[in-house]
Amino acid sequence: MQGIYTEKEIYGDALSAQKACTAQFNLAANECTHEDVRQTMMKILNQEHEIQKSVFDNMHAAGFYPTPAAEDKKVQDAKQKFCQSAK
Question: What pTM was estimated for this model as a whole?
Answer without folding.
Answer: 0.76
